[in-house]
Amino acid sequence: TFALEIEGLEKSYGDGFRALKGIDLKVREGDFFALLGPNGAGKSTTLGIVSSLVNKSGGKVRVFGHDIDTDLSGAKLNLGVVPQEFNFNQFEKVIDIVTTQAGYYGIPLKQARVSAEKYLRKLGLWDKRDTPSRMLSGGMKRRLMIARALVHEPRLLILDEPTAGVDIELRRSMWQFLEEMSRQGTTIILTTHYLEEAEALCRNIAIIDHGEIIRHTSKRELLQQL
Ligand code: ADP
Ligand code: ADP
Question: Where is the ABC transporter domain (predicted)?
């Protein structure tokens, strides 16, 4: 089974700029996958399309076999996304941010509360549950984004530059958390411009540059050639 299949993905922005030039990408269930590339390569655009925040110009995207054009809700149920930018309601409490998200997936409130508690505890935010999100530190906000992305227990978790601008201690604890999620069977895809991060965490790597996949390989193979 493939967690994610991307075929011939194209994106031209409104100004005519071709950000993705027919990308193909396949990620197997259970993989820990890095989409590696320099700034401006097209990583966020790709993830934006997969999470239906950005319209594609052409091509196909399937999440666990659910085509985002014909079965977006099926795709979304299987997908959790951690964006790069914080996009919370500043005044909403931590617990409400996570339970509200569960509501978008049709999870009943009682079950949403149980799941919210589980992930807030896992991410060390349970003590902050009644704090408005604007009062959190940058590191706590990042962890809150991860808890929110997991509340419906998706099979595929996608993170856009999860450790950009994060201090080394939080980076280590995030790596540990992601490794644990991976061991428990969640398929993980992250974007990064740090080779070091891809190397530390991932089994398979695709390198994107100027809107094209220039390599699609296992980590072992890539490191042998550097
Ligand atoms: P879409 O094709 O997804 O609707 P648009 O081309 O309409 O996207 O652009 C969305 C917004 O991003 C616009 O307001 C645009 O001005 C802005 N934008 C333009 N160029 C860039 C850029 N290089 N990086 C980020 N945002 C940009
Ligand atoms: P990455 O995540 O790898 O840094 P992006 O997907 O953000 O790359 O951007 C890919 C290219 O598309 C860049 O050249 C960027 O300037 C351009 N771009 C991104 N968003 C927009 C937008 N809304 N409008 C126009 N150009 C954009």
Answer: 4-226
As given in the structure block, the two tokens for residue 208 are 């994107």
Question: ipTM of the predicted structure?
Answer: 0.72
Atom of ligand 1 nearest to the CA of 55: 3
Q: Cα separation of 226 and 205, whole Å? A: 14
Contact 86, 149 (CB under 8 A): no
Contact (CB, 8 A) for 151 and 108: no
Q: What is the pLDDT of residues 121-163, one digit of tens each?
A: 999 999 999 999 999 998 999 999 999 999 999 999 999 999 8
184 lines ligand 2 (CB under 6 A): no
CA of 13 to the centre of ligand 1 (A): 6
Q: Nearest 5°: CA angle at 151, between 145 and 157?
A: 65
Continuous segment of H or E residues that includes residue 164 = none
In the numeric block, the tokens 């280590």 are attached to: 172
Cβ(36)–Cβ(25) below 8 Å = no
